[in-house]
Amino acid sequence: MLRHHAQPLSALTVQRLLFLALLALAALAARPAAAHINVPPEVARSYEVLYMQSMIDHHAMAIEMGEICLKPGNASHPELRTLCSNVVKTQTQEIRQMQAWLRDWYQINYTPRMSPADQQMLRELDALNGADFEKTFMREMSDHHWMAIEMTVLALPSFVHAPLVDMGLDIISAQAAEIQELRTWLRDWYRIDYIPQRQLLNNLSIQRQS
To answer: Residue 167, SS3?
Structure first.
């Protein structure tokens, strides 16, 4: 089964969370670098390393999904194919950048990893085509993007490297916009009113050190 079993969010909750996250993180990014000096180095390392490794894995999954989307007979709408192409291109670049930061900042060489459950999900997605593929893919990618937003919201306040803060903000804004596009297409093309499903924020509490 491709579908997750997380609790769905309401449309209003999605809009409010995205707005509040963008507002708060934009304010954070506007603060001078000195604003981060109170974050202990070991905390910054923990958050930055874990975030980049997790996001590399997460991006690798999205790239695989995007490449399946671009196979002949899968996505038929050109708008969706363009989005898939952008996902592959953008997230490939971000993986390479995060790998470089892990090497430069923390002397860590990291390659993407994929769980057996993720591999099974990709096989099931790859077995679909046409309208069945598009409906399933757009729901799955909406959930996948929402998880990336949650991961970033949870970790970003502890980052100390400004380039990683900037990337986090870019991930939130770009993937929030793509979620809205996917939801619009599901509604317009298939009369499906889909709400991304909660992945982390309701189940994970990160304890910040003061």
So the answer is: helix
Q: Which two tokens stand for residue 86?
A: 């952008």
Helix (H, G, I), strand (E, B) or coil at 77: coil
Domain residue limits at 92: 45-190
| Residue 8, beta-bridge partner list | 197
**What six digits make up the tokens of 205?**
């509490």
Overall number of domains in the chain: 1
- φ, ψ (nearest 5 deg) of residue 134: -60, -45
> 17-75: per-residue pLDDT in tens?
555 555 555 545 544 443 444 555 777 788 899 999 999 999 999 999 999 999 999 99
CATH of the domain at 182: 1.20.1260.10
Assign 165 to helix, strand or coil. Answer: helix
pTM metric for this prediction: 0.80
Q: Which amino acid is at 135?
A: K
The DSSP output letter for 157 is G
Q: Which residue type sits at 175?
A: Q
